[in-house]
Specification:
The complex is a heterodimer. Chain A contains 15 helices and 7 strands. By secondary structure, chain A is α/β, with parallel strands linked by helices. Chain A folds into 2 domains: about 5-200, no CATH class; about 205-315, Rossmann fold (3-Layer(aba) Sandwich). Chain A has a 4-stranded parallel β-sheet, with helices on both faces. In chain A, helix 10 crosses helix 12 (about 230-235). Chain B has one domain (about 25-95). Chain B is globular, with a radius of gyration of 13 Å. Classes of the chains: A alpha/beta, B mainly alpha. At the A-B interface, helix 1, helix 8, helix 11 and helix 13 of A face helix 5, helix 6 and helix 7 of B.
């Protein structure tokens, strides 16, 4: 029996409406990565994480539980789960299952990004505990009423802080803020750029050359919707990295399967398995630029090849 | 006997979001879709265009299985915005079947 689409979407929408995130997390967990970096609060230009990297260890723990429910009669109880979740934040308990090592891993990637921007002399602040999730998943699932309200909430928050430019760290937040928000929020005029675009436009110079050959897995949203294809290649190329491109790359990249994880976990894993095989044909050192691609492809690789986030590679070659 | 839904047909007609009028049914979208389902997306859009709501409802799992990866629209010779059409269908089902908005 497949997971019940209606009830799962209902829980996601209820959480966004009531708790301002599809998977609400404490501010302590969403801001932990910034500890010791002395980032100013707010500012005209801010780094906006959209909580995506921080959410991955929770999503991963939750997906493990959901996979067990797929084909189980317990799925019939999901309607009751939705009712209970209105009163008690049940996803909070899923968060407790998140691995500590994974949390440290994803926090490090965010720190890499902030340090790279500092190295490139970009002045930026951070909203700390006030920052909100972007609403990306609710937008994708077509729950437009909830999404529109949330987009307005995020826009009001940015305006309150006088933000005119947002630097994003992942393709989903980039796409939601840059392409979806202007369709839902009247007069949304905040500039949105991915950190990869900002770094590629800067004069940041590598501190070491890397002789490794990497296989880059392009994110669907970055490549096809947001025009982010050349920037990561430019940044890696400056450090002497050679690219072993898979047959499906750039604008013709193949999805990692991640978008199906919450509703159809086994199908999501099938697509990730197909993609990792394509990437393995090109090379054994795979680099992603989206935390959702990273977690899915790492699991599909089962340790047979290295799968790393591009922020780790960039941090190494640009000396941060 | 297939039933044509005037409600779905009207929703599609009034929408700026669903537009598959330029589709020439070449089938490239289905051929390149990573999911490999016969229904996605060409056949599904055909059902929508002719207002076969029952057929659309039968395929609710397929509609939510779309990755929105955009491989189809990238290769569509008629430049149909396929992921946006799928989002429109989800919105229609959310509002009319799942009581979600």
């Amino acid at each position: 029996m497949p997971l019940p689409t209606k009830d799962i979407l209902g829980i996601l929408a209820d959480n966004l409406n009531q708790r301002k995130s599809v998977l609400p997390m404490s501010a302590a967990k969403t801001t932990r990565w910034a500890k010791g970096l002395d980032l100013p609060k707010g500012g005209k230009t801010i780094l906006y994480t959209g909580h995506m990297y921080q959410l991955i260890p929770v999503i991963d723990a939750m997906a493990g539980q959901m996979s067990k429910l797929e084909d189980s009669p317990i799925t019939k109880m999901m309607g009751l789960g939705r009712l209970g979740n209105k009163f008690i934040n049940m996803t909070f308990f899923m968060g407790l299952l998140a691995s500590k090592a994974d949390q440290q891993d994803y926090d490090r990637m965010l720190r890499n990004i902030a340090l790279l921007l500092k190295k490139a002399n970009v002045e930026f602040g951070y909203l700390y505990g006030e920052e909100l999730y972007s609403g990306a998943l609710v937008y994708d699932e077509g729950i437009d009423g909830s999404f529109a309200k949330h987009a307005q909430r995020v826009c009001d928050l940015l305006k309150k802080h006088g933000v005119t430019k947002v630097i994003t760290v992942d393709p989903h937040t980039t796409h939601t803020l840059r392409t979806a928000y202007p369709q839902f929020v009247k007069g949304f005029d905040i500039e949105v750029k991915s950190y990869l675009e900002v770094l590629a436009e800067s004069d940041i110079e590598p501190t070491q050359q890397l002789s490794d050959a990497l296989t880059l897995h392009d994110s669907c949203l970055y490549a096809r919707q947001e025009g982010v294809v050349d920037q990561p290649r430019k940044l890696l190329g400056k450090a002497g990295v050679t690219m072993n491109e898979p047959e499906l790359c750039g604008k013709n990249t193949h999805c990692c399967g991640g978008p199906l994880e919450s509703l159809f976990p086994s199908e999501s894993h099938r697509i990730a398995g197909n993609r990792i095989e394509q990437l393995k044909e090109a090379g054994d050192n795979i680099t992603t630029m989206c935390p959702i691609c990273l977690v899915g492809l790492r699991k599909a690789a089962k340790g047979s090849v290295k799968v790393n986030d591009i922020s780790d590679t960039l941090a190494k070659v640009y000396g941060v | 006997m297939p039933k044509v839904s005037s409600k779905l047909a009207a929703a599609v007609k009034c929408s700026d979001e669903f537009n598959a009028a330029a589709c020439m049914h070449c089938g490239i979208c289905t051929a390149v879709c990573p999911m490999g389902y016969e229904i996605l997306p060409r056949k599904l859009f055909r059902y929508v265009q002719v207002g076969l709501e029952d057929k659309v409802k039968e395929n609710i799992p397929n509609i939510y299985s779309c990755l929105l990866c955009g491989m189809c629209s990238e290769n569509c010779p008629a430049e149909v915005n396929i992921p946006e059409n799928v989002r429109f269908l989800r919105k229609y089902i959310n509002e009319n079947e799942f009581n979600l908005s």
